[in-house]
């Protein structure tokens, strides 16, 4: 039996979250990229140059700056940047195969996690929280599983399938990964993105309606019991107030509107890992690296919103209550010009040039999920976006080859250059 070339990539990304496995998460995307391609290394040089300039400007303006957090954030968001900037995938990397294999592995590890809580004799949603359907990633792992499941569902819906279990196995597995975890924001964002498939496949609409009959009552229940302390105090939903915080950053430090506050400094994962709020509500083993500390911009603009609720952790513990998102993170840490460039590049690659619903669904999910939750520096979100990029690029090559073959079979040829006729005397 031949082992798919993408299997090793998927195996590493499916490892349980530990300090050593994070090294694998950030190293694996490096091998997915063809670094010898001019489009890859030139765009990486541009990105590094911009981030370096931003760091120098912030230091010159007298702001504290953690280069450890900067380097760590660069490693974490590299796969996302590779996807939206259009780096060339390695010839050993197959996006569709990677997405399918990772979904199977995550299903297996999630079921193993459930057995530790009495499954199948005790059931999630009934006897214990569905958060334990987490792929073995631990606390917060349900978010990762939902994201992986979404891309699996989109990949399956984007190709032709016969009406049998074998052809729809990936869709079933990915659907479980997408719906079973308790990541409401991911389910809502994913459902909004998957609507694009309804145009060509009415069965998706009926299947979605059936799922909604089960899921919507639970979503309503979660909305009713949601802690609204943040909104009551600040007078705005936390996800909207995230952009108010970015606006205040721009007013206090005008240069950040152009070059950002620096990767890893404001509300990205390294910034949150070093935040003062972790003294009160953290449930994770946080990394302790030399030179890693909470930067001034976080201390002044993000930490106060969080520490205010140090005695009411449920006000900020849920993903829906956190006053930051992926899009607000981009505007704060990278500035307006680069953020607009990245989002426009993603639009061109996944929507306009994708020429199919897979890329368009991925683009819609990119926007929707990152308005609700920070996924920019999630290695899993990044590699799934890059896998989607490879898949739509491969699909485009296949379509072009079929057109060429059809033209040859029909005898249609493009005229070649004709030799110039000699001028008459």
From TrEMBL:
The keyword Transmembrane applies. The chain crosses the membrane at residues 20-37, 44-64, 70-89, 101-120, 140-157, 169-197, 203-221, 330-350, 362-389. Keywords: Membrane, Transmembrane, Transmembrane helix. The keyword Protease does not apply. This is O-antigen ligase domain-containing protein. It comes from Qipengyuania gelatinilytica. The lineage of its organism: Bacteria, Pseudomonadati, Pseudomonadota, Alphaproteobacteria, Sphingomonadales.
